Structure formats: C-alpha cells, structure tokens
Amino acid sequence: MPSTRATPRQVELGVLLRRIRKRAGLTQPQVAELVSRSHSHISRRERGELGFEEQAELERTLTVSGATSEETSQALRLCRDGTDPNWLIPGIARDLAVVTEYESVANDIFAYQPSLIPGPLQIPEYTRVMMVDGDMPEAEIDSKLELRAARRRRHLDGTARYESVIGEQAIRYPACPPDIAVRQLRDLCEIAELSHISIQLLPFRLGYHPAREGGFDLIRSDSTTVVHVEQYRSSTTLTNTRDVKDYVEAAERIRRDAMGAVASVRAIAKIADELERTG
C-alpha cells in the first residue's frame, strides 16, 4: 500500500517531482491526465504524503515530465528507500528543501539552539558570518543566503506558531562581530513582538542536562511530527515515533527550564545595550 505518512525521502522525492514538472511547463492536472491518475493523487505525491505502489508508475511520471537519466536514478533510489522513517541528509541545499516542505504545512514549530541563533531568526549579516567562518565557497554564499532569507520571510509572515529557546551563550557570546551582534539582538527583540513568535532564553546557571546538549527543531502538522537535527555538513530528519517522543519530552523540559518570554526579551535587550557600549 502507498505510505500515508510523509517520510523524509518521500518528501524529497515530492520536491524533485515538482521541480521536474514545473521545468517541463506542466500543471498537476496535466500530469494526472498523462498518467491516468487524479489531480489530488499527484498533489499528495508532490507533498510526500503518498508513495508509489509500483516502480513503473513512477517511471511513467518521470518520462512524461522529461526527467533526465540522473534525475530518474535519484527518484528511483528515493522511492526504493522511501519508507525509512529517519534519514541522514548530506548537503545543506537538499536538507533545506526537505525541512521547508515539512515547515510549509506545520501548525507549530519548536526550535532549540544552545550556541547559535536559530536559522529563521538570523539576520543576513549573521548568517553570512556563519557561512564564511564555516569555509563555504564564496560562489555559493549568495544563493544560500537567498534560500535562508526566503525561509525567514515565510516564518515571519506566516501563521504557524514558532517557539524558540536560545541558549544564553548564543546571546552573550555571539559568533560574529559586535556590531552585527547588536543588530541581531535588536532584531530578535522586534521579532518577539509578533503574535505567533515566542523567544525564550535558557540561562547558563542551569548547568548540564542531556536534553539541552544539542539543537533541534520539532515540526508539528495535522498529520505528523518531525524532528530535524542539523550537524556540520549534514542533517538528520526523524519521524520514527519513539525518537520523536524523546525529543518532545526534551522540548518540554527545555521550556520549563527557560526564562519567560517577557523576561527573555528584556535580558536580550540588556545584553545588546552592553555590547553596544563596549563594542
């Protein structure tokens, strides 16, 4: 039977199929007619909500959409491994495409970062410093910044609740020059005024707990809950029920340990003032 739960590979396959279709100038109803399926069937596949019962059907879809041999091989591989609930994704661009798909249908997102500002809350100057210091080739930086900026706009202009807990280290010792840090912290205070966004600070004084060790995003929609964990050159997307449950519990503990939203914004503003004075 086709999958009714969007796994990371199914989501990436959907992204790939949509990109190929749009390049060919085809609409979803046109592809549906060409492969003798309903419009809703094609739409659900491009969202990663529906798998392929037979490889031949995927091959027909790729053929009518004009997929290259490389794209066909990639699609078949994603289809074959599509039911795996967890996935280590190499490469930031592919990672961001998959995460964006999950975020596009999310009702609420919980983001925890102990030492950096969460991606959707970063100003471009802060993100650029991260990319340069991370040895990203200069030729790739501008395009990556555009992707990050688009993601940021979707979060700020959207309706999904975005709840962020940031470690005090990221605020008090930002990984960027002081002038950029001040602008970033002021921006956080402004963003926190949006009704669907909450920013909380996790103080140093709490000490160590495994739940607070590494950053993660918890993305919830009507149909699924997904955990996204970003590493140095790759990321992991988890949909396995037991794994997700562990992160849900970690998020609950982190919320309890964090300062309240109002107190957090006041603390961030105070640290910004201190940085501005000392330079």
Structural account:
By secondary structure, the protein is an alpha/beta fold. It has two domains: 8-80, lambda repressor-like DNA-binding domains (434 Repressor (Amino-terminal Domain), Orthogonal Bundle); 86-278, Endonuclease Chain A (Endonuclease, Chain A). Helix content is 54%, strand content 15%. The chain is built from twelve helices and seven strands. Strands 1-7-6-5-2-3-4 form a seven-stranded mixed beta sheet, with helices on both faces. A hairpin with a 3-residue loop joins strand 6 and strand 7 (234-238). GO terms for molecular function: DNA binding.
> Roughly what percent helix?
40-55%
> What is the CATH superfamily of the largest domain?
Endonuclease Chain A
By DSSP, the count of extended strands is 7
- Give the end-to-end Cα distance, rounded to a whole number of Å: 61 Å
What structural class do you assign from the helix and strand content?
alpha/beta
CATH topology of the largest domain: Endonuclease, Chain A
* Largest sheet report: 7 strands, mixed
Spatial strand order of the main sheet: 1-7-6-5-2-3-4
Q: Which percent band covers the strand fraction?
A: 15-25%
Shape: elongated
Rg estimate, integer Å = 21 Å
Short description, anyone?
This protein has 279 residues and is of the alpha/beta class. The protein is built from twelve helices and seven strands.
